[in-house]
Specification:
Shape: globular
Radius of gyration: 16 Å
Order of helices and strands: EEHEEEEHEHH
Strand content: 15-25%
Number of strands: 7
Number of helices: 4
Largest sheet: 5 strands, mixed
């Protein structure tokens, strides 16, 4: 396996409002990166709750995804429906995305690898299945980018188009 400690990646899946955007940080147990992730894990704030990604048909059946995966929501989840979709559908999709990366040979299924995922789910999301699929797709993409790095042609394009780049949250000229 490649030395993944401190590698980062991002990915988008689905379409708004039921899409998902994730940022991933990978760490190896015992490193400063892992220590920083554990600090984030143990530092909840109102509307932002880090959780160990678990799957199972009911609470007594929960099993943690391996490698251990910590998710943190980027969008403040205050409304009950937004919380349910974030920690239900998105959590399941994120776990499936990690397991896809294990199946694809990108991550080791061990307890020394740590996956930290910051996930954005739109508060207008209303389709749990679409959110689950979007989170799975986004997380697998982000892990792939973290392990392999961004595609060289994408970096080249960004550099060449840097003066004309846009962002949907920027309204200036």
């Amino acid at each position: 396996m490649t030395d993944i400690d401190g590698r980062i990646g991002q990915g988008w899946g689905g379409t708004s409002p039921n899409g998902a955007h994730v940022n991933v940080v990978l760490a190896r147990r015992g490193t400063p990166t892992a220590a920083a992730l554990m600090t984030a894990f143990t530092s909840p704030r109102p509307g932002h709750t880090p959780v160990l990604v678990c799957v199972g048909p009911d609470q007594p059946s929960y099993e943690a995804v391996v490698p251990p995966t910590i998710m943190m929501n980027k969008a403040t989840a205050m409304a009950e429906r937004h919380q349910t979709i974030t920690w239900g559908a998105a959590q399941l999709g994120l776990g499936q995305g990690v397991l896809d990366a294990v199946a694809d040979g990108l991550l080791a299924a061990d307890l020394d690898t740590i996956v930290f995922v910051a996930v954005w789910i739109d508060e207008a999301a209303d389709d749990e299945t679409a959110v689950r699929h979007a989170a799975r797709e986004a997380n697998r993409r982000a892990i792939g980018e973290a392990v392999a790095g961004p595609a060289a042609d994408a970096v080249e394009r960004l550099v060449s188009e840097r003066d004309g780049l846009a962002n949907p949250f920027y309204a200036g000229e």
